[in-house]
Design goal:
225 residues, alpha/beta, eight-stranded mixed beta sheet, two-stranded antiparallel ribbon, binds cytidine-5'-triphosphate, binds calcium ion, ligase, metal ion binding, FMN binding, decarboxylase
């Protein structure tokens, strides 16, 4: 880190990025997850590296190659991601929460593979903890992470829902993402998003690559960092 000191507008800044959908186990061979490829989060990590930041990427298993130069922390469940975020964002200048965190997990994970019976099987799901809500509490005590950006994945009423999340989660900015479009959001290479800011500003971006979206996100963060 000190030998290979980096250049760029984010040099000397520590950026923590989360990516991918968390995996909540049902039994040793099955899990519940979200429809997330990790592409937008990996693009944020790559763009932050390209701008000179020290990057910690907290990721669930994805089909993507880790960006070269990032410190990569592998997690599976929402609970594991929560602990990793709290640990690594303790000294972070910026946390970008791109991960699709499960809102529910199976109440129990069976120790052995559940065998088929030909009959119905009911799963009881429990709520997971909200990572950004926990980060908000820590940040009020310690001041870290200094800045936080969240995402809002919505299929309806995008801007109203995103605005509520911006406020309740205490974010500097939220990236509002309509995930019901076929050319933007889940799995594809492109994204069409709007930025909503704590100070009331709003920016609508045209359809563009996830890397270009990532650069725009970090350009906004540059003005605070
Ligand atoms: N998030 C989080 N912890 C969770 C769930 C979500 O930190 N347990 C984060 C996501 O990473 C994202 C933001 O909160 O940055 C919004 O996630 P989203 O799923 O859109 O909102 P939720 O608050 O989970 O509400 P809902 O899914 O009911 O719309
Ligand atoms: Ca959710």
């Amino acid at each position: 880190r000190y030998l290979l000191s980096r250049k760029g507008p984010l040099a000397g800044k520590h950026v923590v990025v989360t990516a991918g959908g968390t995996q909540e186990p049902i039994d040793p061979v099955r899990f519940i997850t979200n429809r997330s490829s990790g592409k937008q989060g990996y693009a944020v990590a790559q763009a932050a590296l390209d701008m000179g930041a020290d990057v910690t990427l907290i990721t669930t298993p994805t089909a993507l190659n880790a960006p070269c130069g990032a410190t990569v922390i592998h997690v599976r469940t929402a609970e594991e991601m929560l602990h990793a975020v709290l640990t690594y964002s303790r000294s972070a200048d910026l946390l970008v929460m791109s991960a699709a965190v499960a809102d529910f997990r199976p109440a129990q994970s069976a120790e052995q593979k559940i065998k088929k019976t030909g009959k119905e099987l009911a799963l009881t799901l429990m709520p997971t903890r909200d990572i950004l809500a926990t980060v908000k509490e820590k940040r009020q005590q310690s001041g870290f992470p200094r800045h936080v950006i969240g995402f809002a994945a919505e299929t309806e009423d995008l801007l109203n829902n995103a605005q509520k999340k911006l406020e309740t989660k205490g974010l500097d900015m939220i990236v509002a993402n309509n995930v019901s479009a076929t050319d933007a959001g889940f799995e594809v290479e492109t994204n069409r998003v709007s930025f909503l800011f704590a100070d009331g500003r709003k920016i609508d971006l045209p359809l563009q690559s996830k890397y270009a979206v990532a650069e725009r996100i970090l350009e906004e963060a540059l003005s605070w960092l």
